[in-house]
Amino acid sequence: MYPKKVAEDSAKVLRSYLTYQAVKLIVEQLTETNPPQAFWLTNYTSNQNIQDGEAYLDGLMDENKELVLRILTVRQDLADNILDLLPEMVKAIIVQANIDHRRRLLERLTASPKPNDSPEQ
Fold it and tell me: Which of 14, 47, 119, 121 is the most buried (most CB within 10 A)?
């Protein structure tokens, strides 16, 4: 197992996800304050691969530097607000999900065959 590599890959995914969330939040704000810019950003985003947040920002930099700075600011704010909660929350969610999957697996392993089922099934 390579915990450092897994952590690095997870951090990259989280960085891109926070970029997506920042764009989503900014589109919501712009819808109220500047609908044409909200439409433009929505259209731009739908034609780009936002799954790679850094490549998305690099492309947007050529189109609208102001929006890039806004996304960076919002992304940083989101990170500052969630990163303290995240480790404990992720552990708890994984523990609960594992319990649920193990319970369902045990139920399937111990289930008796239905009366209409033949032994061959």
Answer: 14
For residue 120, the model assigns a pLDDT of 59
Cβ neighbours for 67, distance < 8 A, ≥ 6 positions apart: 26, 37, 41, 60
What are the tokens at 94?
């994984």
Tell me the two tokens of residue 81: 């607000």
pTM (2 d.p.) = 0.80
| Pair of tokens at residue 35 | 């609908």
Q: Are 4 and 60 in contact (CB under 8 A)?
A: no
| Domains of the chain with bracketed CATH | 3-82 (1.10.1200.210)
Q: Which pLDDT band holds residue 114 (cuts at 50, 70, 90)?
A: confident
